[in-house]
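Reviewer comment 2.1 asked that we show a complete input and output for one of the modelled complexes. We chose the magnesium ion case, as it is the one discussed in the main text.
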Amino acid sequence: MSPGKRLRLVIETHGLAQIMSGHSPLSAILADEAGFDGIWASGFELSALYGLPDMSFISMTQHLDMVGAIVAATTLPVVADIDTGFGNAINVMHAVKSYECAGAAAVVIEDKIFPKVSSLTPNGRQDLTRVEEFQGKIAAAVAARRDPDFLVIARTEALIAGFDEDEALARGVAYQAAGADMILVHSKLDTPRQIERFSGAWIGHVPLAIVPTTYPQLTERRIRDLGNIAMVIYGNHAIRACITAMRGAFATIKRDGSAANLDRELVSVDEVFRLQGMPHIRELEEKFLR
Ligand code: SPV
Ligand code: MG
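Response of the prediction step:
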């Protein structure tokens, strides 16, 4: 079954796909073990991993390499965050072909102008593309995919850019008309008000996706009640969890002048071996090294 088909099946059977951010194969393996339905190959997380801001500094090749490595490490479908699509509609076609070949299940393309700035940046420059131009990008993405189940998800940043729900809804309808399989509507308010209004007024037939980073009080139970949201993306929780954990561990060693106390709190080296697949390597050595 193709990755796109698997993701569609998850949505069909669970109603709401729980997608966890990932910036590495290891984070994807942990999300898989925790029971998530898929991985959000987040541009924000990968940028942060490189110690860079999320503003189109990471190249398509860097992100694509990571997507390929994540696909190889887990069986979960990968939803690739391809920002603005790395250029115009023709660049989008190249990107879609490349991400599908790398094994992604879906791409999310946002209607901002390249180079983008992270949606969550306070007072960030948030310029939107013309609707017709972005429709061209979505239509190009749909034309470029080989597997009809590969999902092309159109993300509108209208609310992020300071427009109202009417503009976001109009853009959503236009992107659906261009062939999008789903509309991701992003908001950075600290309440779910915009998302609830958008969802309530959505007249399109394709489902919605949301990223409730700034409004985590919108629980999955409440999201399901809205009735038309098929995907919840936990956009940056893997990298934030890493930062919290590493910062605490480093401070403990500095304070103690030793790793003795910290050692008791950390996963064992054996657990790292397990996550690395070492037990299987042992079996292979038995079988093939003669
Ligand atoms: C990402 O994780 O890269 C996203 C989501 O695009 S956000 O950072 O909230 O814009
Ligand atoms: Mg992003």
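The two ends are 36 Å apart (CA to CA). We note this here for comparison with the apo prediction described in Section 3.2.
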